[in-house]
Amino acid sequence: MTIEYSGRGDPARSLALLWRTSERTSRKGKPDLSVDRIVRAAIEVADAEGLQGLSMRRVAERLGVGTMSLYTYVPGKPELLDVMLDTVHGTAYDETGGPEEVPGGWRERLTRVARANWALCRRHPWLLQVATSRPVLGPNVTAKYDLELRAIDGIGLTDVEMDQVITLVTGFVHGTARGAVEASQVESQTGMSDEQWWAAHAPFLSRISDATRYPTAARVGQAAGEALGGAYSAEHTFEFGLERLLDGIEALIRRRTGQSG
């Protein structure tokens, strides 16, 4: 898998592009280009081909313009990637509404945060190919972070704990979403469905598997396979893990606020 890193571009140019402080407009007689059009085209390329297929040339082809014309608006691919990230994060709650719209308490609001981020990663799988330890400092990423923090504000956590809870939830989502994306792509990448893969391995497994030697693995593997309809279900892992994650956060809140039960 191709891994890219956010924040690799020139800081001044990236921030100017993210916050649109010095956007250029098309000149008369030139292609009708803008930063927004270029970014939308780049996102479409990445959605279809992954980051391994993203280049300034591919974006230019999609727009029907010369590659060099893009550099009038975007300094290069690193800065373009930062704006792509900021743009798609601005759509995270378009379909579900923000966590503040959820009736109930912090648990329901945090569940909305997790599900919205899961859906975002499924819509744009290339997000999982970007390492963001150096965050994109754009308006949409900042607004999303603020919105998600407000979902757990005033429930008894310190500011640092609030930050860590959001980091924990989004990190969990990214891990399980990566498994879902890999599972959805494995057939096209290998030319073999899960059913075909198991059928090909079954004759050999029947000869080498030994339930008496690995009794726990045999018992649990069979039960899980029957329950999940296969060796792995990313959706089940997400649902199960999210509930356990919320249980742990609830225990922390109870300890912080002195609640019992």
From TrEMBL:
Q: Which residues form the HTH tetR-type domain?
A: 32-92
Which UniProt keyword terms apply here?
Answer: DNA-binding, Transcription, Transcription regulation
Span of the secretion signal? Answer: none
Q: Which InterPro entries match?
A: Homeodomain-like_sf (IPR009057), HTH-type_TetR-like_transc_reg (IPR050109), HTH_TetR (IPR001647), Repressor_TetR_C (IPR004111), Tet_transcr_reg_TetR-rel_C_sf (IPR036271)
Q: Does the keyword Protein transport apply?
A: no
UniProt DNA-binding residue ranges: 55-74
Q: Does the keyword NADP apply?
A: no
Known Pfam families for this protein?
TetR_C_1, TetR_N
What this protein is called in its record is TetR/AcrR family transcriptional regulator
The organism encoding this protein is Nonomuraea indica
